[in-house]
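Lay summary. Proteins are chains of building blocks that fold into shapes, and those shapes determine what they do. In this project we predict the shape from the chain. Here is one chain we studied, written as its sequence of building blocks.
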Amino acid sequence: MSLFTPSRRGLILGLTSGAAGFASTGALAQQVFAEYPFQLGVASGDPAADGFVIWTRLAPRPLETGYGMPAAPMSVSWEVAEDRGFNRTVASGEVVARPELGHAVHVEVEGLQPARDYFYRFSAGRERSLTGRARTAPAAGAPTAGVRFGVVGCQNYEQGYYTAHRYIADETLDFIYCYGDYIYEGRGNRVWNSASGPQAQPRPHLGGETFSLDDYRRRYAQYKMDVDLQAAHASAPWFVTWDDHEIDNNWVSDLDQDGTDPAIFRLRQQAALQAFYENMPLRRSAFPRGSAMQLYRRAVYGDLLDLNLLDTRQYRTDQPCNERWASTCDGVNDPAAEVLGQAQEAWLFQSLQGSRARWKALAQQVMLMDLNRNLNGEVGYNLDTWAGYRVPRARLLTHIQRRNIDNVVVLTGDEHQNYAGELFLDGRNPEGRPIATEFVTTSISSSGDGVDQRSDMARIQSQNPFLKFNNAQRGYVICDLTHARWRTDFKVLDRVSTPGGVLSTRRSMAIEAGDPTLAEA
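And here is the predicted shape, written in a compact code that computers can read:
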């Protein structure tokens, strides 16, 4: 018996009952498709103890303008069951897929049991989607023996195949955290100017750089048509955030790096935000409002894990020193600088201080370790990371230290490399034991095949002793938590330039509860 059957009024109102649509008194379009409408797959996201979001988007011809759909609303049915065969359906209903939202569907399913697997699917007319697996979180504060999740991101379609997504789909996970760079905004290029010289792109982008809503919709469609990515989405619920390439390289606030008038750039942001929402399994609370979007939030996994999902782009002040690589200047110490912005920072501090979970994770985008990346005997940072913002970085670490908040783990991406390191107020003068631990997850495909360790990074690691592990291959991370220990497995591929790369565990690192010192597991 269904636990949730929307009324006709709920169907029409759409968004108030969890569906992606707005009020409409017009008739729904006839549900006949020239081609299969679920070509972008299905996904679930933002799991809670009583439910999760399920997502799909109708797109019979995903790469065309208009994606093969009429400019009219259309009814989509959905089901959630306890078994993959849908013999024990526990929730079902209908929602309206609207053209204003690219015929995307977001259903916030409620009334489910905690810490349990569920299966879901959609249908429109005579067409049915593939089946996805979702999993609810344990009830807040409930005794929880373990949590196992994956971390992914930086998946430049042009620079490699999504073999890592196929492998992570075969893992049994409570959830997957995507730190961002889900798409890349650049124009299609046949040749990629890599660090080792010109290389042929394995599979170029279609079209030019993305600026309009149609541009971003087409780019998401090209990515989401990848069957390995669809498998990863269907395997477990995702928590998604963004980094820069969902809009434009290294953007912060309403600033790009090309000197565009902020008012003009906000128009691009608005198009990108809408496309991001249309294509991600996000709750109604993340619905974009012009060029703004609420993405920072917290998820609770019993008494074991508080997952604080952060946004390090939308509220950040401009990068200092003209963002010169491996450099520094007075702007690094600007007392007015922000990374999280005042409201998000206050929310995070309160969340950390009030947490009763064993582990407190900061799921974010740019490195918190202040790596000295200058190889000429001077000091220099990646100024697009927290190291370029010494004052807000110190506020965060000082808050953790002075409030005696233990078992804080930072989860980061963006670097296209794997890192494991310990966090100090000043990495050049580490004092006492570490304040927290950071794991940086490499890219799915960005930067191509990679190597075990770049020669420059071997030198950088030698001058930054708090950095305990570095690797420059592609892959993903698996985090396995108990009350006693946090273990991180760095999974890497031998190649992504061609299909069929071989996966291995390059290194496993662990910390014991109460001690942020890293050790090999």
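What the prediction tells us: Residues 209 and 215 are 8 Å apart (CA to CA).
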